[in-house]
Amino acid sequence: MKVTIVTGMLGAGKTTFIQHYIKNSSEKTVILVNDFGKTGIDGEVLSQVNPDTIELPSGCVCCSLKFDLITTLQRIQNELFPEHLLIEPSGIASVSAVEEALFQSGIKHFTVVTVIDSVDFLEYYNSQEYGAFFEDQIINADLLLINKIDLVKPEVILKTREVLYNLNPSAIIIPTVKAKIHKEISLSQNAKTPQSSINHLHIESLAVDIPDGIKKEDIEALFKGFAAQRTSSVLRAKAIIKEQKGSFLVDLASGKCFSKRLHKGTDRSRMVIIFKDLDSEALRSEVVALLNKRG
Fold it and tell me: What is the value of pTM for the model shown?
């Protein structure tokens, strides 16, 4: 069984990368996704392209869910027999800690793909806001994708590549748009050695059920309000909206909001907001009040 960890900061394009990869792969693949929050939005989005999607929601695979991850890995190997297992930890998970769980499950050959958000990368790196955690995702990577190059200037791409190369000269570095890579690029399995793991980021999430009558445009307006405050403590937001005309995903990442129709319907509307340095109950009250105004 091939194993690939797909990591990257919140909103970098991990789920998008997996969607493209699955569409172009003929392998029997299982996706194991750890959605930070209780909504399971990433799991539902990925299940639209791959039915064999297993969720480990609410928590982080590198700490509170580590035992669950090890148990699930064993079940996947013994019951599902995939050719390829894709693991998407939450954007706050420590790569080295996920690798540690793989070693404890007897898996010593795997690939680490790290998706880099070129819009925010240099700002995060220069500020050292995420310090060792940020570098952990880079130095453990076999393949580094500089994503969203269509949204930045060429000099930003060059500087990003330079920083990545200095941190991890052995990794393959590929610029991408929407996290797409050529079919010919192999996710080769590399022998790994155990490393000291670091703690995950201390970030919170808020899950909110969205009442009936709220439309995609209402959530877009809410998310754009978050985006207008670039110094906002809201790091990421995602929602799945159920309407009569279909179901939609609304996503806020890198200060930009976008939406798309889902191929399959959803049973309910819901959102997750990922944030830091905010009072969760105050944020919930604010969001619920805004939704009630629009409902």
Answer: 0.78
199 has a pLDDT exceeding 70: no
- CA distances (Å), 122 to each of 32, 109, 161, 201, in order? 29, 31, 10, 18
| pLDDT tens string 181-192 | 987 677 777 766
CATH of domain 2-191: 3.40.50.300
List for the chain the helix, strand, coil content (%; round to 5).
35, 25, 40
- pLDDT at 148 (0 to 100): 97
Burial 262-291 (b: 16+ CB within 10 A, else e): beeebeebbbbbbbeeeeeeebeeebeebb
SS3 assignment for 13-77? CHHHHHHHHHHCCCCCEEEEECCCCCCCHHHHHHHCCCCCEEECCCCCCCCCCHHHHHHHHHHHH
Q: Can you give the pLDDT at residue 62?
A: 46
CATH superfamily of domain region 204-294: CobW-like, C-terminal domain (3.30.1220.10)
Average pLDDT across the chain, whole number: 84
Residue 100 is predicted with a pLDDT of: 84
The reply to whether domains 2-191 and 204-294 share a CATH topology is: no
Distance of CA 218 to the CA centre of its chain: 24
